[in-house]
Design brief:
Shape: elongated
Helix content: under 10%
Strand content: over 45%
Structural class: mainly beta
Radius of gyration: 35 Å
Number of strands: 43
């Protein structure tokens, strides 16, 4: 059967619309040529008419027209000119209506539209309906759904509110271009028969096939789907991909709408080179919160992450493999809430092998919190599963409980804000050091402005700590172990921070220059005798230059008296914004610092740090972070993030080089160099190409334990995509260069196809 197309632009109408049509390959060509071709558009302008009066009861019809004729012998009413009929929420408009009161038959002609109580509107040149306006038939029918989408057919009828269309087509796409002329929809579903039930909001097809860009795809004989935004049960678009680990993959999700607030998606994954895998996702939303549970399960060969060749049978076994992820939160009262999450995998390579996630650590949490006007309370716990090669699971922490309470009040004596804090932490390990910690502290802050415009902030800090640790010899980093048993520590610090902003006109905009000086006084503390769990990663940056404690956590406190100075600069001119800062600190005492080499803070004079951000409209965004050696001005940190382009066409670049010159073996202070590139180019209205790459530029000179040769690609990605108002189509190629056990490096290809406005 030949294809009956959606219309081309043959008139200037802004409302020219969908022509009925369908390509049915299974029906002989001759039959298609004999069948009448539907020639139906939406009216060029809506039929204007005075509103028909609302009927007093369901047995009456509200009626309005320009002229009215009544034949008392035949009981025939003929209405002409902007006719409108209303009954039981059904509304009919036409140029001419003939109503036989004896038979109840209503014949409407010329620019006819019938709107049902749900808001669906059927268009046609001639309608035969009953006087209830509920049931009837029409040739060359166009049905515009209130929930979105439209159906066109050679013939259609409505009975008991259900539409049945023959030789029909459905699309959720726009059928007008930017000039208001008709256009071919991006996709349409063609069928011999289509049934639409407004009550169920569902469309069912007989002998259907999907047509994409005018080309017929695979037939879908039992297709059924919901319409609108509410969704409904049914098959979803399959996901097709290929990778070196599993071969060709077909994932076919089936969506179950269990209730308006609950759903379940079951997705079988079938592979050419591996046993199938089953994925399930359950979601539940209620008035106080929501939660979701996602699980993967399969049976297959698992290879130890220490193996070099995953094809070797050594240390391999067949077993059940899978992954569970669940999260949820509940608001008990306006102040109280609870939340939690679970992430656990059967082995270290499952997530990468099946391309579920590239995370190398999984964290499970549980907690409750209360947020008041001036107080905060949190009780939490968490555990970590490592997926990294060489990491010992026994060294991963289990924190329970983690308690934090804060109360803020106005200082009744000196003014300012006074905050009290109490905190406890208990960390245990199956084969590592166990630590318990508790502290109570208070912090006072007073911000004031002088008569010359200086912004001065006074800070006072007091805290008392209590620690207990055991199994300290199991700590792989002795510097973080501390002393065994019970330990105490008292902390006191005071600071004065002064900023003096100067503002004025410059280059047609506003310029701001603000010198800043901070003085911190803190006595010597017993830091190294205490275990260090949460303050291991420390690095001088522009973000923590003026912090009271430049360690990230509580277990270490910077016990040096120091002066920190810097300069902030800002320029705002039309379309251009420049923000910059630079600074350095000097330690006043001569005692050795607990901060190791490579942090930029080990000497009395710190390294120089700064940041510059430049923006031009929404077209250019550039951020540069740096750290310069205090003695040689060598670049110890050089980080650039840049984006150039529009939302549709852009280039992103990121470069990071860490040349800390740190002591070997200190955690998180290794040198590295990395380049990240990405971009997208839109070459047509809906078409674009995109790509990204990550390259490890670290060599043995920067990191002696690195296996990289100075140019080691990590991951490449390249693809092409089409996206309009009703379709997303994309083909992506990715190459991974890093292997982990049976998650081998190699190429993968993925086809993504998503039909919008189809309800699933």
């Amino acid at each position: 059967m030949s294809h009956v197309p959606f219309p081309r632009c043959f008139c200037p109408s802004a409302r020219a619309a969908l022509l009925g049509g369908i390509a049915l390959l299974a029906i002989p060509q001759a039959f298609a040529q004999e069948a009448p071709e539907p020639r139906l558009n939406e009216p060029q302008a809506p039929v204007s008419a005075p509103d028909a009066p609302a009927p007093a009861s369901d047995d009456q019809i509200g009626f309005a027209a320009d002229t009215l004729e009544y034949d008392s012998n035949t009981e025939v009413v003929t209405a002409s000119g902007h006719v409108q009929l209303v009954r039981e929420g059904n509304r009919l408009r036409a140029d001419r209506v003939v109503w036989n009161r004896t038979s109840g038959k209503v014949e409407a002609q010329g620019n006819v539209s019938v709107t049902d109580p749900e808001g669906n509107t059927a268009y046609g040149d001639r309608f035969d309906v009953t006087d209830t306006l509920k049931d009837g038939a029409v040739d060359n029918m166009l049905l515009v759904l209130q929930t979105g989408g439209r159906l066109a057919a050679v013939k259609g009828e409505r009975a008991n509110g259900v539409y049945t269309l023959h030789r029909a087509a459905y699309t959720g796409c726009s059928v007008e271009d930017g000039d208001g002329c008709p256009k071919e929809p991006t996709w349409q579903i063609n069928a011999v028969k289509v049934v639409y039930d407004p009550t169920r909001e569902r469309v069912s097809y007989t002998n259907a096939n999907v047509e994409l860009f005018g080309l017929p795809l695979i037939p879908l004989p039992g297709l059924s789907h919901p319409v609108g935004d509410e969704g409904g049960s049914g098959l979803m678009v399959p996901n097709l991909r290929y990778d070196r680990n599993n071969g060709f993959e077909v994932a076919l999700p089936y969506y179950f709408k269990l209730a308006p607030n609950r759903d379940l998606t079951i997705t079988p994954h079938v592979y050419s080179d591996a046993l199938p895998m089953l994925e399930t996702n359950y979601r539940h939303l209620w008035d106080r919160g929501a939660y979701q549970v996602t699980g993967y399960v399969t049976y297959g060969r698992r290879v130890g992450t220490g193996e070099i060749d995953p094809t070797l049978p050594a240390n391999s076994q067949k077993d059940v493999r899978g992954y569970l992820e669940t999260s949820g939160a509940m608001q008990l009262t306006p102040e109280w809430s609870v939340d939690g999450s679970v992430r656990v995998a059967t082995d270290r390579t499952f997530l990468r092998r099946y391309d579920v996630s590239r995370d190398d650590r999984l964290r499970s949490t549980i907690g409750a919190q209360r947020i008041g006007d001036n107080s905060y309370f949190s009780l939490r716990g968490w555990a970590v599963q490592t997926l990294r090669q060489g990491d010992s699971q026994g060294q991963q922490p289990i924190a329970l409980p983690v308690l934090d309470y804060r109360y803020r009040m106005t200082d009744p004596l000196l003014g300012g804000v006074l905050q009290f804090q109490a905190n406890t932490l208990a960390i245990s390990r199956t084969s590592g050091q166990d630590t318990q910690r508790a502290f109570a502290g208070a912090e006072w802050n007073l911000r004031t402005l002088t008569g010359l415009g200086q912004e001065v902030t006074f800070t006072g800090y007091l805290r008392g700590d209590l620690y207990h640790s055991s199994d300290r010899l199991l700590n792989p980093i002795p510097a973080y172990a501390g002393d065994a048993g019970w330990q105490t520590r008292g902390i006191a610090a005071a600071a004065i921070d002064m900023r003096w902003p100067f503002m004025g006109e410059a280059l047609g905009g506003v310029q701001r220059i603000a010198p800043r000086v901070q003085i911190v006084a803190a006595p010597h503390l017993a830091n190294l005798s205490l275990p260090n769990e949460d303050a291991r990663a420390v690095d001088l940056e522009d973000s923590n230059l003026f912090a009271l404690n430049r360690f990230a956590g509580y277990d270490r406190f910077e016990d040096s008296s120091r002066v920190t100075y810097g300069l902030e600069y800002g320029l705002e001119i039309p379309n251009v914004s420049i923000q910059a800062n630079i600074g350095q600190s000097y330690r006043l005492d001569r005692r050795p610092s607990i901060l190791p080499d490579g942090t930029g803070l080990s000497g009395r004079l710190s390294d120089i740090v700064g940041r510059t951000t430049i923006r031009y409209k929404d077209f250019v965004a550039l951020t540069h972070r740096y750290r310069l050696d205090k003695d040689s001005l060598a670049v110890r940190r050089n980080e650039i993030d840049a984006t150039i382009g529009s939302k549709s066409t852009y280039v992103m670049a990121g470069y990071l080089r860490l040349n800390r010159n740190a002591v070997a073996g200190v955690e998180d202070l290794q040198d590295r160099e990395e380049l990240r590139l990405g971009g997208r180019v839109q070459f047509a209205r809906f078409w674009s190409v995109f790509g990204s790459t990550v390259i490890d530029l670290t060599d043995a000179r920067e990191d002696p334990i690195s296996m990289s040769d100075g140019y080691q690609p990590v991951r490449h990605r390249l693809g092409v995509a089409y996206e309009d108002d009703c379709l997303t189509l994309g083909l992506t190629w990715r190459r991974d260069y890093q292997a982990n056990g049976d998650a081998r490096k190699g190429n993968s290809f993925q086809l993504r196809l998503a039909f919008r406005n189809i309800g699933i």
